[in-house]
Amino acid sequence: MIVVTGATGNVGRPLTQALAEAGEQVTAVSRHAAQASASTPDGVRHVAADLAEPAGLAPALDGAKALFLLLSGDLHAPEARPADIIELAVAKGVRRVVLLSSQGVSTRPHGPTRVAMRALEDSLRESGLDWAVLRPGGFASNALAWAESVRTGGTVAAPFGDVGVPVVDPADIAEVAAACLLDDRHSGGVYELTGPEVITPREQAAVIAAALGSPVRFQELTRDEAKAAMTRFVPAELADDTLDIIGAPNPAELRISPDVERVTGHAPRPFRDWVTRNLAAFG
């Protein structure tokens, strides 16, 4: 049995689907079991647990052979103790953990949240478990933050409108995660996951407009305005680390990684593919 945390999210949903289609028994974990039940395949067990309280995850890990670990926003806060989840997995007899980390661990190792994530990676390496680490860059699905403003006003508002990074499709992250959970060949692997092209927020808005067949206006935000919006959902430290990257990406953050294709056998999906699959959110 494989446990998927963040099962209602942009990575967790397709990962749960892929594992179920592969014939695996899957336990989908989210803060609200009803949400997981509504978005996962038949036959998948649903457990409500808040990873900020790791003991609540214990029932989900009964009989589990593997765990996909995705940290919610509050687990990036300075006082959080996500390494307790690794210790719990060891105590419950889990044999493999695949951790969704961050590209910034290698490209911005001194950012506060990156230091904490590297410490979690190190805890996993030292745990005695089989492990793999995924380090994605920016997610294509971050564009969902614009969905309401596109629907109601035909507007995308974002900072750094003409600064691009190679955003990655969560479906590609999910495919890589499934391979790492199921295939021993990926044990000990560290995979940097990006999309196939550097694309700016202004260009993303144009892709959405073309898919909708209607104009979408781009509105430039200041860094402070963007941070104020982000800190409604994530700790300030994570917002600052993210804005540092998307505002002034370094050469490593602009590099197109071969790892999606290396693991899955296909090239990473471009942003327009993600928009096509999610167009209903913007229309």
Description of the structure:
The chain is of the alpha/beta class and 283 residues long. It is built from 14 helices and nine strands. The mean pLDDT is 92.
Radius of gyration: 18 Å
Report the principal-axis shape: globular
Give the structural class. alpha/beta
Number of strands: 9
On the 0-100 scale, what is the average pLDDT? 92
What is the string of SSEs from the N terminus onward? EHEHEHEHEHHEHEHEHEHHHHH
**Count, helices:** 14
Taking pLDDT < 50 over at least 5 consecutive residues as the criterion, the unreliable ranges are none
The strand line-up of the biggest sheet is 3-2-1-4-5-6-8
Classify the oligomer.
single chain
Described by strand count, sense and barrel closure, the largest sheet is:
7 strands, parallel
> In percent terms, what proportion of residues is strand?
15-25%
Features:
283 residues; 7-stranded parallel β-sheet; two-stranded parallel ribbon; 14 helices
Q: What's this model, at a glance?
A:
This protein has 283 residues and is of the alpha/beta class.
